[in-house]
Amino acid sequence: MNIARALRTADGTFAGVISTGLPVAVVLDAFGQLALGTQGFAALVGTDDGHLRAALGSAIAGTPSLGSDISIADTPMFRTMRRSWAVPWTGTSPVDAVRRIHVFHAIPGYDLAVVVAMQDQEAMAPAIRWRRQALLLAASLTVLLFSLAALLAAGAHRARRRDARIAADRAALAASGAELEAARAEAAAKAERLEATLGGMIDGVSMIDADLRLVEWNARFPEIAGIPPEILRVGLPMEELLRAQVATGQFGRLADGEAEVQRRMARLRVAPYGVTQR
Prior knowledge:
Elements: E1 2-8, E2 14-21, H1 24-32, E3 41-46, E4 52-57, H2 76-83, E5 89-92, E6 99-106, E7 112-119, H3 120-124, H4 127-200, E8 206-208, E9 214-217, H5 221-225, H6 238-247, H7 257-270
Antiparallel strand pairs: 1-2, 3-4, 3-7, 5-6, 6-7, 8-9
Helix pairs in contact: 6-7
Protein backbone atom coordinates (compact mmCIF):
# COMPACT_ATOMS: atom_id res chain seq x y z
CA MET A 1 0.00 0.00 0.00
CA ASN A 2 1.36 3.40 -0.97
CA ILE A 3 0.47 6.72 0.64
CA ALA A 4 1.47 10.01 -0.96
CA ARG A 5 1.16 13.66 -0.07
CA ALA A 6 1.61 16.49 -2.58
CA LEU A 7 3.87 19.43 -1.70
CA ARG A 8 2.96 23.01 -2.55
CA THR A 9 5.12 26.15 -2.64
CA ALA A 10 4.10 29.40 -0.94
CA ASP A 11 2.16 30.49 -4.03
CA GLY A 12 0.33 27.18 -4.30
CA THR A 13 2.19 25.72 -7.27
CA PHE A 14 3.10 22.03 -7.34
CA ALA A 15 6.51 21.30 -5.76
CA GLY A 16 6.71 17.51 -5.73
CA VAL A 17 5.41 14.49 -3.83
CA ILE A 18 6.46 12.70 -0.65
CA SER A 19 5.40 9.05 -0.64
CA THR A 20 5.84 6.03 1.60
CA GLY A 21 4.90 2.41 1.24
CA LEU A 22 3.44 -0.11 3.67
CA PRO A 23 4.28 -3.70 2.64
CA VAL A 24 1.22 -5.90 2.37
CA ALA A 25 3.08 -8.42 4.51
CA VAL A 26 2.67 -6.09 7.51
CA VAL A 27 -1.09 -6.21 7.10
CA LEU A 28 -1.01 -9.96 6.62
CA ASP A 29 1.04 -10.38 9.81
CA ALA A 30 -1.71 -8.56 11.69
CA PHE A 31 -4.32 -10.76 10.02
CA GLY A 32 -2.32 -13.86 10.95
CA GLN A 33 -2.71 -13.09 14.66
CA LEU A 34 -6.47 -13.71 14.46
CA ALA A 35 -7.99 -17.05 15.45
CA LEU A 36 -10.37 -17.34 12.49
CA GLY A 37 -10.87 -21.10 12.58
CA THR A 38 -10.47 -23.53 9.73
CA GLN A 39 -12.67 -21.53 7.35
CA GLY A 40 -11.77 -18.00 8.41
CA PHE A 41 -11.29 -15.08 6.07
CA ALA A 42 -9.78 -11.59 6.57
CA ALA A 43 -9.26 -8.85 4.01
CA LEU A 44 -8.43 -5.20 3.51
CA VAL A 45 -10.84 -3.72 0.95
CA GLY A 46 -10.82 -0.43 -0.94
CA THR A 47 -14.20 1.16 -0.27
CA ASP A 48 -13.98 3.44 -3.30
CA ASP A 49 -13.31 0.79 -5.96
CA GLY A 50 -14.14 -2.54 -4.28
CA HIS A 51 -10.67 -3.99 -4.89
CA LEU A 52 -9.00 -6.33 -2.45
CA ARG A 53 -5.76 -4.83 -1.13
CA ALA A 54 -4.81 -7.93 0.88
CA ALA A 55 -6.52 -11.13 1.99
CA LEU A 56 -5.75 -14.16 4.14
CA GLY A 57 -7.57 -17.39 4.94
CA SER A 58 -8.35 -20.91 3.83
CA ALA A 59 -10.39 -19.54 0.94
CA ILE A 60 -7.24 -18.58 -0.94
CA ALA A 61 -5.22 -21.68 -0.01
CA GLY A 62 -2.52 -19.85 1.89
CA THR A 63 -1.79 -17.26 -0.81
CA PRO A 64 -0.45 -14.21 1.11
CA SER A 65 -2.00 -11.57 -1.15
CA LEU A 66 -4.67 -11.49 -3.81
CA GLY A 67 -3.27 -8.27 -5.30
CA SER A 68 -5.17 -5.10 -6.19
CA ASP A 69 -6.63 -6.36 -9.49
CA ILE A 70 -9.36 -8.52 -7.90
CA SER A 71 -12.61 -6.65 -7.50
CA ILE A 72 -15.54 -7.57 -5.24
CA ALA A 73 -17.50 -4.43 -6.07
CA ASP A 74 -20.42 -6.38 -7.56
CA THR A 75 -20.82 -8.83 -4.67
CA PRO A 76 -23.58 -8.83 -2.03
CA MET A 77 -20.99 -8.52 0.75
CA PHE A 78 -19.53 -5.28 -0.67
CA ARG A 79 -22.95 -3.74 -1.27
CA THR A 80 -24.03 -4.62 2.28
CA MET A 81 -20.77 -3.26 3.70
CA ARG A 82 -21.31 0.08 1.92
CA ARG A 83 -24.85 0.37 3.31
CA SER A 84 -24.03 -0.33 6.96
CA TRP A 85 -20.72 -0.71 8.77
CA ALA A 86 -22.09 -1.50 12.21
CA VAL A 87 -24.29 -4.50 11.40
CA PRO A 88 -22.66 -7.94 10.87
CA TRP A 89 -23.62 -9.64 7.64
CA THR A 90 -24.11 -13.37 7.09
CA GLY A 91 -23.68 -14.68 3.59
CA THR A 92 -21.33 -16.16 1.03
CA SER A 93 -17.85 -14.58 1.01
CA PRO A 94 -16.88 -13.07 -2.37
CA VAL A 95 -13.77 -15.23 -2.82
CA ASP A 96 -15.40 -18.66 -2.43
CA ALA A 97 -18.75 -20.34 -1.80
CA VAL A 98 -18.40 -20.57 2.00
CA ARG A 99 -21.13 -19.01 4.10
CA ARG A 100 -19.70 -16.88 6.90
CA ILE A 101 -20.54 -14.16 9.40
CA HIS A 102 -18.76 -10.95 8.32
CA VAL A 103 -17.86 -7.91 10.42
CA PHE A 104 -16.73 -4.64 8.84
CA HIS A 105 -14.76 -1.66 10.10
CA ALA A 106 -14.07 1.50 8.08
CA ILE A 107 -10.66 3.12 8.67
CA PRO A 108 -11.25 6.84 9.33
CA GLY A 109 -9.73 9.20 6.80
CA TYR A 110 -8.98 6.52 4.19
CA ASP A 111 -10.95 4.67 1.52
CA LEU A 112 -10.22 1.36 3.26
CA ALA A 113 -12.16 -1.12 5.35
CA VAL A 114 -11.26 -4.27 7.27
CA VAL A 115 -13.40 -7.36 6.78
CA VAL A 116 -13.14 -10.32 9.19
CA ALA A 117 -15.28 -13.41 8.69
CA MET A 118 -15.80 -16.87 10.25
CA GLN A 119 -17.94 -19.81 9.32
CA ASP A 120 -21.31 -19.85 11.12
CA GLN A 121 -20.67 -22.83 13.37
CA GLU A 122 -17.16 -21.71 14.35
CA ALA A 123 -18.21 -18.15 15.00
CA MET A 124 -21.08 -18.78 17.44
CA ALA A 125 -19.02 -20.04 20.39
CA PRO A 126 -16.23 -17.47 20.53
CA ALA A 127 -18.27 -14.62 19.03
CA ILE A 128 -17.40 -12.08 21.73
CA ARG A 129 -13.67 -12.77 21.60
CA TRP A 130 -13.70 -12.82 17.81
CA ARG A 131 -15.38 -9.42 17.62
CA ARG A 132 -12.84 -7.99 20.07
CA GLN A 133 -10.00 -9.32 17.94
CA ALA A 134 -11.54 -7.87 14.80
CA LEU A 135 -11.81 -4.45 16.41
CA LEU A 136 -8.24 -4.75 17.70
CA LEU A 137 -7.01 -5.52 14.21
CA ALA A 138 -8.88 -2.54 12.78
CA ALA A 139 -7.50 -0.29 15.53
CA SER A 140 -3.95 -1.52 14.88
CA LEU A 141 -4.25 -0.80 11.18
CA THR A 142 -5.71 2.62 11.94
CA VAL A 143 -2.77 3.50 14.20
CA LEU A 144 -0.34 2.20 11.60
CA LEU A 145 -1.87 4.26 8.81
CA PHE A 146 -2.10 7.39 10.95
CA SER A 147 1.56 6.97 11.89
CA LEU A 148 2.47 6.89 8.22
CA ALA A 149 0.33 9.97 7.61
CA ALA A 150 2.05 11.78 10.49
CA LEU A 151 5.46 11.00 9.00
CA LEU A 152 4.33 12.36 5.65
CA ALA A 153 2.92 15.51 7.27
CA ALA A 154 6.19 16.09 9.15
CA GLY A 155 8.17 15.67 5.93
CA ALA A 156 5.88 18.10 4.11
CA HIS A 157 6.27 20.64 6.94
CA ARG A 158 10.05 20.39 6.79
CA ALA A 159 9.93 20.80 3.01
CA ARG A 160 7.75 23.92 3.35
CA ARG A 161 10.16 25.41 5.92
CA ARG A 162 13.10 24.65 3.64
CA ASP A 163 11.32 26.29 0.69
CA ALA A 164 10.57 29.34 2.85
CA ARG A 165 14.24 29.62 3.83
CA ILE A 166 15.33 29.29 0.20
CA ALA A 167 12.83 31.98 -0.84
CA ALA A 168 14.09 34.30 1.91
CA ASP A 169 17.70 33.69 0.90
CA ARG A 170 16.88 34.43 -2.72
CA ALA A 171 15.11 37.64 -1.77
CA ALA A 172 18.08 38.74 0.36
CA LEU A 173 20.46 37.87 -2.47
CA ALA A 174 18.37 39.86 -4.95
CA ALA A 175 18.31 42.86 -2.59
CA SER A 176 22.08 42.63 -2.10
CA GLY A 177 22.57 42.39 -5.86
CA ALA A 178 20.46 45.52 -6.39
CA GLU A 179 22.45 47.41 -3.75
CA LEU A 180 25.72 46.26 -5.34
CA GLU A 181 24.61 47.43 -8.77
CA ALA A 182 23.60 50.82 -7.33
CA ALA A 183 26.94 51.17 -5.57
CA ARG A 184 28.75 50.11 -8.72
CA ALA A 185 26.88 52.70 -10.79
CA GLU A 186 27.61 55.43 -8.24
CA ALA A 187 31.31 54.51 -8.17
CA ALA A 188 31.47 54.58 -11.97
CA ALA A 189 29.83 58.01 -12.03
CA LYS A 190 32.28 59.34 -9.45
CA ALA A 191 35.19 57.86 -11.40
CA GLU A 192 34.00 59.63 -14.56
CA ARG A 193 33.71 62.95 -12.69
CA LEU A 194 37.18 62.46 -11.20
CA GLU A 195 38.72 61.69 -14.58
CA ALA A 196 37.05 64.75 -16.08
CA THR A 197 38.31 66.91 -13.22
CA LEU A 198 41.87 65.61 -13.48
CA GLY A 199 41.86 66.00 -17.25
CA GLY A 200 40.84 69.65 -17.01
CA MET A 201 43.55 70.64 -14.52
CA ILE A 202 46.60 72.62 -15.68
CA ASP A 203 48.59 71.26 -12.71
CA GLY A 204 50.23 67.86 -12.52
CA VAL A 205 48.21 65.61 -10.21
CA SER A 206 48.79 62.03 -9.11
CA MET A 207 47.17 59.87 -6.41
CA ILE A 208 48.67 57.04 -4.40
CA ASP A 209 47.03 54.49 -2.13
CA ALA A 210 47.76 53.61 1.49
CA ASP A 211 50.63 51.38 0.36
CA LEU A 212 52.20 54.34 -1.49
CA ARG A 213 51.49 52.92 -4.95
CA LEU A 214 50.31 54.94 -7.94
CA VAL A 215 46.59 54.66 -8.68
CA GLU A 216 45.72 57.67 -10.86
CA TRP A 217 47.37 60.67 -12.63
CA ASN A 218 46.51 63.30 -15.19
CA ALA A 219 48.18 64.13 -18.51
CA ARG A 220 50.21 67.05 -17.07
CA PHE A 221 51.75 65.01 -14.24
CA PRO A 222 54.69 63.36 -16.10
CA GLU A 223 55.79 66.71 -17.61
CA ILE A 224 55.63 68.73 -14.41
CA ALA A 225 57.06 65.93 -12.19
CA GLY A 226 59.86 65.24 -14.66
CA ILE A 227 58.99 61.58 -15.11
CA PRO A 228 59.01 59.63 -18.40
CA PRO A 229 55.34 58.94 -19.13
CA GLU A 230 56.06 55.44 -20.44
CA ILE A 231 57.02 54.14 -16.98
CA LEU A 232 53.71 55.14 -15.38
CA ARG A 233 51.29 52.33 -14.53
CA VAL A 234 48.70 51.60 -11.86
CA GLY A 235 50.40 50.04 -8.86
CA LEU A 236 53.82 51.58 -9.52
CA PRO A 237 55.61 51.98 -6.14
CA MET A 238 56.37 55.53 -5.05
CA GLU A 239 60.05 54.58 -4.78
CA GLU A 240 60.15 54.04 -8.55
CA LEU A 241 58.61 57.47 -9.14
CA LEU A 242 61.26 59.09 -6.92
CA ARG A 243 64.07 57.15 -8.60
CA ALA A 244 62.82 58.37 -11.97
CA GLN A 245 62.88 61.95 -10.68
CA VAL A 246 66.43 61.46 -9.34
CA ALA A 247 67.47 60.16 -12.74
CA THR A 248 66.04 63.25 -14.52
CA GLY A 249 67.68 65.62 -12.04
CA GLN A 250 64.53 66.89 -10.39
CA PHE A 251 66.24 67.04 -6.98
CA GLY A 252 69.49 68.63 -8.19
CA ARG A 253 72.94 67.13 -7.91
CA LEU A 254 72.96 64.30 -5.37
CA ALA A 255 75.89 62.33 -3.99
CA ASP A 256 73.63 59.40 -3.09
CA GLY A 257 70.36 59.28 -5.07
CA GLU A 258 69.04 56.14 -3.30
CA ALA A 259 69.52 57.76 0.11
CA GLU A 260 67.44 60.70 -1.10
CA VAL A 261 64.71 58.32 -2.26
CA GLN A 262 64.60 56.60 1.14
CA ARG A 263 64.64 59.95 2.98
CA ARG A 264 61.65 61.16 1.02
CA MET A 265 59.81 57.85 1.44
CA ALA A 266 60.33 58.02 5.21
CA ARG A 267 58.85 61.50 5.28
CA LEU A 268 55.86 60.37 3.21
CA ARG A 269 55.17 57.52 5.61
CA VAL A 270 55.03 59.75 8.72
CA ALA A 271 53.64 62.96 7.17
CA PRO A 272 51.39 61.94 4.26
CA TYR A 273 50.46 65.50 3.26
CA GLY A 274 52.20 68.85 2.99
CA VAL A 275 53.82 71.24 0.49
CA THR A 276 57.16 70.76 -1.23
CA GLN A 277 58.68 73.56 -3.32
CA ARG A 278 61.52 73.11 -5.83
